[in-house]
Design a protein that fits this description.
Blueprint: H1 19-26, H2 29-42, H3 50-58, H4 63-68, H5 74-78, H6 83-88, H7 94-98, H8 100-120, H9 128-156, H10 159-193, H11 198-212, H12 214-222, H13 227-235, H14 241-257, H15 262-271, H16 274-290, H17 294-322, H18 325-338, H19 341-349, H20 353-381, H21 388-406, H22 410-417, H23 419-428, H24 431-442, H25 445-449
Family: Belongs to the major facilitator superfamily.
Organism: Bradyrhizobium stylosanthis
Protein name: PAT family beta-lactamase induction signal transducer AmpG
């Protein structure tokens, strides 16, 4: 998963308006464009992640191999390396036809469709290497789309619509993820129920997911190029491509690393969501191993799981507005770690749908709280508007390290300890991030960031 952005501003900025005026902001064309782009960004993440893991488990792939597949998320970790290219370079034909940002949007989405179709044609049981390669391509094109969408959202929305745009993006991103998890599982079950063999049912399920990327492509075609992007493009026309890339890359890195306690802050970014990532890597195989059907899992994730996620997002926003940033991070860090105990309890209870619903709700609710608060922190770190896109790509890429590399051994740990103990370990892996949080708070790190509007 890529995280959305927010802008720093005076905490006492604008007074509350009537509910009609608030609703009207969400119906602005620019906000609606961002909403559909959020759906397009959230859709591919599970296709190379949790949904793929269910497919592999049903195909008989062992837990150790499944755990290694966390590594296909590498592009989400390294996307900051080519973010300056997206900022500085033009895509032949596409940029001329659609503009700087929209050209990259359409180009990355078409590549994403091709990558998902390639993944659909693989066989996890016979050729896990080709599955990994296709999943890696999906992750790479998806990460590129995230870079462009983040920049487009920041540049296209005026100050008065930034908050509504962020909220719409977060909600649509989550819905996109749920469509590619629960929705994909329902679609596969539907194909299988109609008499299509299971391997072919999975293939056609991924074909449907590839077609849904066209929602983002149509949105990009309907949208207009941000004025800020046009101005920036015009201002750098005389520069060579190499000069533009160099300025985008060096400025973003040097400005951030010159700050006090920069390395500790980066380590905290890596570790804060690690507890979620470590458990999330094995949640789908765990549920299947307990004896639940894919439809049981999909129905609960799509139903009560979605409700818990949206409510958790509002709760996270309330916490971030109500308390200082450091306090909010303490609340988010602790609750998202403790939620893993609900899965330990589920492992003991066994195949009970009410217990599964409670565990999924607890995980989705607390994860959403932690995510919204974490987004506020990442946004506060991006203080220089000249480098927002590249810096945000760097920070979200580092946040993906826990999901990608540190979580790669989750399958080995689960196989060695058993499910109840595994989820207790998932709680314990949150301790390093909380230690760093205490150290940064003592050093005055959060006071230096200033207020953040969520």
């Amino acid at each position: 998963m890529t995280a959305p952005d927010a802008t720093s501003s005076d905490a006492t900025a604008a007074p509350a308006t009537s509910w009609r005026e608030s609703l009207a902001v969400y119906l602005q064309p620019r906000v609606l464009i961002v909403l559909f782009l959020g759906f397009s960004s959230g859709l591919p993440l599970a296709l190379s992640g949790s949904t793929l893991l269910v497919w592999m488990r049903e195909a008989g792939v062992d837990l150790e191999t499944i755990g290694k597949f966390a590594l296909v998320g590498t592009p989400y970790t390294l996307k900051f390396l080519w973010a300056p290219l997206v900022d500085a370079l033009h895509v032949p034909l596409f940029t001329r036809a659609f503009g700087r940002r929209r050209g990259w949007l359409v180009f990355s989405q078409l590549l994403l469709i091709v990558a998902i179709l390639l993944l659909a044609m693989t066989d996890p049981a016979r050729s896990p290497f080709y599955v990994a390669l296709a999943a890696l391509l999906v992750a790479m094109t998806s990460a590129t789309q995230d870079i462009v969408v983040d920049a487009f959202r920041v540049e296209s929305l005026p100050e008065s619509e930034q908050a509504a745009g962020m909220a719409a993006y977060v909600a649509a991103y989550r819905i996109g993820m749920l469509v590619s998890t629960a929705g994909a599982l329902f679609i596969v079950s539907g194909f299988e129920g109609s008499g299509i063999p299971r391997p072919s049912a999975w293939m056609w399920g991924y074909v449907v997911m590839a077609a849904m990327v066209l929602i983002g492509t149509i949105t990009a075609l309907v949208a207009t190029e941000p004025e800020q992007s046009k101005t920036a493009d015009a201002a750098t026309q005389e520069d060579t491509a190499f000069t533009r890339v160099l300025h985008a890359a060096i400025g973003a890195f040097s400005e951030f690393l010159s700050r006090k306690d920069a390395l500790a802050a980066l380590a905290f970014v890596v570790l804060f969501k690690f507890t979620d990532a470590f458990s999330g890597t094995m949640t789908a195989p765990f549920v299947i191993d307990l004896g639940f059907t894919r439809n049981d899992y999909a129905a609960i994730v799509k139903g009560v799981g979605l409700a818990a996620t949206l409510i958790g997002g509002f709760a996270g926003g309330f916490v971030a507005r109500r308390y200082p940033l450091a306090t909010s991070l303490w609340i988010g860090g602790v609750v998202q770690a403790l939620a893993n105990l609900s899965f330990s309890w589920l492992a003991i209870v066994g195949t009970n749908q009410w217990a599964l619903a409670l565990a999924i709700c607890a995980e989705n609710f607390t994860s959403a709280i932690g995510t919204v608060i974490f987004v506020a922190y990442l946004s506060a770190l991006c203080q220089n508007p000249l480098h927002t896109a590249t810096q945000y790509a760097l920070l979200t890429a580092l946040a993906a390290v826990g999901r990608t590399y540190l979580s790669a051994g989750a399958g080995y740990v689960a196989a060695a300890t058993g499910w109840p103990a595994f989820f207790v370990i998932c709680v314990l892996v949150a301790i390093p991030s909380l230690v760093l949080l205490a150290w940064l708070q003592k050093r005055g790190h959060f006071e230096a960031l200033g207020p953040v509007r969520v």
